[in-house]
Amino acid sequence: MATMAAMSGCSGADGPTSTDSDGDAAMAGTVALGAALYSESCQACHGDREGEGNNGVAPLHNERGHTFHHPDAQLMDIILHGKPPGLMPAFEGQLTAEQVEAIISFIKTWWTAADLEVQQDISRRHQEALDKQQSAK
Ligand code: HEC
Fold first, then answer.
1. pLDDT per position as a tens digit, 49-84
2. Cα 21 to the chain's mean position, in Å?
3. If you take atom 43 of ligand 1, which residue's CA is the nearest one?
4. Is 57 domain-assigned?
């Protein structure tokens, strides 16, 4: 996925600050869009990077939370469809898949390089398992 490829070029902990190539500039744009959408739709419950403004119920998405233990596909699913029993609202119809991807890219700038590596590995294995399931059908 283009997003992941671009992501691996980032330092992770500090986020994409350099815009010295087209890829980095595109990534910075995606992250900026994600940041705006996040503060609009997510921050009231989840809080910001430091957990400031967290409502006491929603988990943090920073390195203290366990969001980075979920593969990309699962994060997308949770955000679009919500999480039973319904504390986490479904955003399908409000946000496009592309917008959710931007939000996920933004959240990823909060993670350490080690967290990013773990999550990339989880995403890859998850995708491989899905591919295997598909070809077994
Ligand atoms: C109304 C409050 C609320 C809003 C708004 C909200 N969330 Fe959540 N979210 C929650 C709660 C509560 C949970 C925990 C649900 C559970 O575990 O049952 C959660 C869980 C999650 C999880 C799973 C985290 C994990 O570690 O399992 C992700 C990812 C997530 N939210 C992302 C988002 C994003 C992205 C947005 C904005 C588009 C958003 N949330 C908006 C309340 C909210």
1. 999 999 999 999 999 999 999 999 999 999 999 998
2. 23
3. 88
4. yes
